[in-house]
Design goal:
262 residues; single chain; alpha/beta; 10-stranded mixed sheet; 21% strand; 10 strands
Length: 262
């Protein structure tokens, strides 16, 4: 089920829509996607629209520009979650945005989630309990769309993931001159035990680069800071003039596998 909340639909009709949506029952719903515009003035109101929904079979949730209020019993059964929020430049930032405490508070309720994707810019400080545990997460995917976002507060510097075995990092960088600094920052955001527990590492870089640094050496050193990796996958579009694989004609990704399996 996919729902997109628009300002023109909810602006003056919110109470009516809210009443209609108050108690819905979806006994067989497995996947739910919720989305609003990034500049949706009523987005904070819209978070309550699914609060009363009974979804006993829901396992996957995909949310964009909305941090929904779910029944605790619904949130605690989720096994896979994708969250996109605050994906705009600070100079275009609306007066209201999702606060770090709100985002982390939502994630903390996902006590069974194993596969977590987070594409979020945190525009303020986190003031909640120190290092909240997300003990069920085994695969974590993070999108950091530019250098500022990569070097700012992010979810891996706030939460702890003791069961993590797979880490997928997607970066947007304007030049390779920033790559080493960003990877070092990300590495130090993890605890020692988290780094050692990761066996599958994926790095994807989606922007143009300068070609005066040895990128594979930088990536190799970064990978060595984790535990006994079973695999390391590197992605970069060969169509980019200065991409990591611009010297090839057919390669978009490279996966290195440890034949000993760790």
């Amino acid at each position: 089920l996919y729902l997109y909340f628009r300002e023109r639909d909810l602006g003056n009709n919110f109470e009516k829509v809210s009443t209609t949506f108050a108690t819905l029952y979806f006994p067989s719903l497995v996947e739910l996607s919720l989305s609003t515009s990034a500049y949706f003035e009523s987005e904070r109101k819209s978070k309550s629209l699914v609060r009363g929904w009974d979804m006993p079979s829901l396992l996957e949730l995909d949310v964009r520009n909305i941090i929904p209020e779910l029944r605790p019993e619904v949130a605690m059964r989720l096994e896979k979650c994708r969250i996109n929020a605050n994906r705009y430049k600070l100079r275009y930032q609306p007066p209201k945005y999702w606060h770090a405490n709100e985002i982390v508070g939502f994630l903390k309720g996902l006590i069974s989630v194993k596969d977590l994707y987070v594409a979020v810019c945190l525009h303020d400080s986190y003031t909640g309990p120190k290092f909240p545990l997300m003990s069920s997460v085994e695969k974590l995917s993070i999108l950091l769309e530019d250098f500022h976002t990569a070097m700012s507060l992010n979810i891996i510097s706030i939460c702890r993931f003791p069961a993590l075995t797979s880490f997928d990092l997607r970066l947007g960088l304007s030049g390779l001159a920033d790559l080493d600094e960003v990877l070092r920052h990300i590495t130090h955001s993890f605890s020692d035990s988290e780094r050692q527990s990761i066996t599958d590492l994926n790095l994807c870089i989606d922007r143009d680069y300068d070609d005066d640094l040895p990128p594979f050496e930088i990536v190799g050193l970064w990978g060595s800071s984790f535990g006994e990796l079973k695999s390391l996958r590197i992605e970069s579009s060969r169509d980019e003039r200065d991409g990591l694989f611009s010297f090839t004609g057919t390669v978009d990704s490279l996966k290195v596998v440890n034949p000993k399996g760790g």
